[in-house]
Amino acid sequence: MSDEASHPPFDLTRFHNLLETKRFGRNLVFEPTVGSTMDLARDAAHHGAAEGTVALADEQTAGRGRLGRSWITPRASNLTFTVVLRPPRHVLRQVAMLAPLAVALAVEEATGVRTAIKWPNDVHASGRKLAGVLIETESDGSGEAIVLAGIGLNVNFDPREYAEIRDIATSLSVETGHPVDREPLLATVMLHFERLYDEAKAGGSLRDRWRERLAMLGQAVKVAAPGRTIEGTAEDVDDDGSLLVRTASGDVVAIEAGDVTLRE
Ligand code: BTN
Prior knowledge:
By secondary structure, the protein is α+β, with helices and mostly antiparallel strands. It is built from seven helices and twelve strands.
């Protein structure tokens, strides 16, 4: 089979026909190949793009992850996109929770694959990384925040072909044993994202639904946070998504960002 046949380009018309949202994904900026959709979205946002605008690419040549890492995006295989948000102050920190929750709910609804969220905002399946979220926040120039929520969801690629992620990543085709259509999946992510976002804006809390799916709660963990490493038991998360770790001294430390691993 040709590469084009096994990895067809994203079908924008099909996606729009399937989309059930009011705002999210209605305005879509698509590039077959781009450096990073974060930059595509930033550019659109600074040119006045409405909330819910999505920057989508079939391939990224400089995809980026959290903590300065890179993100592998082979052509027409996965979903790599960034959503432009203009959240009120009380929703700002919740975006990092609702993005992975939207992905987890959509993956389960569209494919039946069971997911877990690995703090702070990775989505896992079978104990391996299925999706990652990168949040970049800046000002629109008039003091209002622009949040760029970048999502990389491994759909139809085989991480075993990449030595650096072979042992830690998975994809929906690996989990289901067959290729997965990207257009209905993105439409489902958009619907969950819009619903959760509107709920958060209306003052609702996502914490319980997020916490229900969080891996590692109650377990002995080591958290590499900026400038420090904390060891203890992952007890809970707070309303803003900080991880609450009880250390050996009995103190509970709230950690906003970092990388968590199970302690040996
Ligand atoms: C991580 O787990 O480290 C976050 C990965 C985020 C990757 C996505 S792919 C779409 C968007 N564009 C990027 O360059 N990064 C995010």
